[in-house]
Amino acid sequence: MSKHQEYLAKRQLKRGTAGWVLLAGLGVSYVISGDFAGWNFGIAQAGWGGFLIAAVAMAVMYLTLVLSLAEMSAAIPAAGGGYSFARQAMGPTGGFITGLAVLIEYALAPAAIVIFIGSAVNELIGIDGPWVYALFYAAFIAVHLAGVGEALKVMMVISGLAVFAILLTAAVLIGHFDASNLFDIAPASAQATEALPYGWYGVWAALPFAMWLFLAVEGVPLAAEEAKDPAKDVPKGIIGAMLFLLFTAALVVLLLAGAVGSNVIGSSAVPLVDALKLTGNPTIATIVNVLGLAGLVASFFSIIYGYSRLVFALSRAGYLPKSLSLTSKNKVPSRALIFPGIFGFVVSLTGEGDLILAMAVVGATVSYALMALSHILLRVKQPDLPRPYKTPGGVVTSAICLVLSLIAMTGVYAFDPSAFMMTLGLFVIGGAYYGLYSRNNLVAGTAEEEFAMLSIAEQELETSAS
């Protein structure tokens, strides 16, 4: 057995597990908790009109990002997702910075979500805190350890319940819609208007909250190596997920404030539930409250999947300790599931869900800018790279994403400078680790070498198996 074959034999994911429908479900599952809470605080920052501007801008950013990722994931179907694309376009250092940015997002987001889960559980049965966080981390990591096929099917069921809750809420509230409710926040100054009660600064500060309607949909390409036909399934899955999320985002942003007023929704911890209660639907509100927990669980569950595949890919390439990419007999990266889970649990003990979420958004926006730049560079440097799917608009589309990503990143600073600076601290720590250690321990010098090594090892394994 060659050294390449021996190395990869211990680092195998289960191929052919997910078709495009499961991948689209994964994309929706990543994000769906964002429809239940978090986004609405952007209304408190900007008023409904200002938040609408922020939401449209972020919808355009995510749509252009998804279209760019669809092309790159079809051309480079690797489990590293954005990291793999950036390494191909910008070399080892660019790949590491992008991978680190995605890792910050995906390691911190579950910690924030599990805090929100604790609050939801507390409202239902009066229990919250570390034991709840530990139970959810342990239970859902255990499901993932059983195998990817089983995990994705469980995720689809949970996501379906969450989507049902949103559709049920919309059906009930549509009869209570009154456009005047959208603009019930009084202007904060003489220069402000009802449409923009906090001016353009409010729109800027609302950008991170608008991102919560779509945050993490970019994780679909992390499942590329487990797709049935990556070149076709990943683009269809990520675009399908994004279109569906645009629909659910439009429902909650329009109907909740339209039914009970922007003032109420902008300060609500459970906006769907409060909107239903205030319109005289307490029974449905209770049902949606329970199903809202399913939405949080769906995102928590699927982002755990996402971070494990990212850590697996970074470890397999040598950016992180190589032992983290070892896979079990079920072809599951066990250590890549467990160790980031321990990190996330420790972070969750702070109880600072909003701060952790803001830090995750900084990581996300940095990664979006670098992924968009990767798309542009790959078009310029490798025009002959086989592209089964091509981004409509080409580099213009990815350039729009690049500009909006940088603007969104500054929005976190406008809302919470401490979250912005703390995330920069994580980048400094990660950069020091790369500079002092991991850049000298990479498995391959370039992305092409890495992919070639994996391809050769796979062929050898298939030959020996037959």
How is the secondary structure organized here?
Layout: H1 3-9, H2 20-31, H3 41-75, H4 82-125, H5 130-146, H6 148-173, H7 199-211, H8 230-260, H9 262-265, H10 271-278, H11 282-316, H12 334-348, H13 353-381, H14 395-415, H15 417-436, H16 447-465
Helix pairs in contact: 1-16, 2-6, 2-8, 2-11, 3-7, 3-8, 3-13, 3-14, 4-5, 4-11, 4-12, 4-13, 4-15, 5-12, 6-8, 6-11, 7-14, 8-10, 10-11, 11-12, 13-14, 13-15, 14-15
Give me some keywords for this one:
single chain; 466 residues; mainly alpha; 16 helices; 0% strand
Task: Tell me the radius of gyration.
Answer: 22 Å
Number of strands: 0
Q: How are helices and strands ordered from N to C?
A: HHHHHHHHHHHHHHHH
Helix/strand-derived class? Answer: mainly alpha
Please mark out the parts with pLDDT under 50 across 5 or more consecutive residues, or reply none. Answer: none
Question: Level of helix content?
Answer: over 70%
Overall outline = globular
N-to-C span = 15 Å
What profile does the largest beta sheet have?
none
Oligomer: single chain
What is the mean pLDDT? 88
Strand content: under 5%
Number of helices: 16
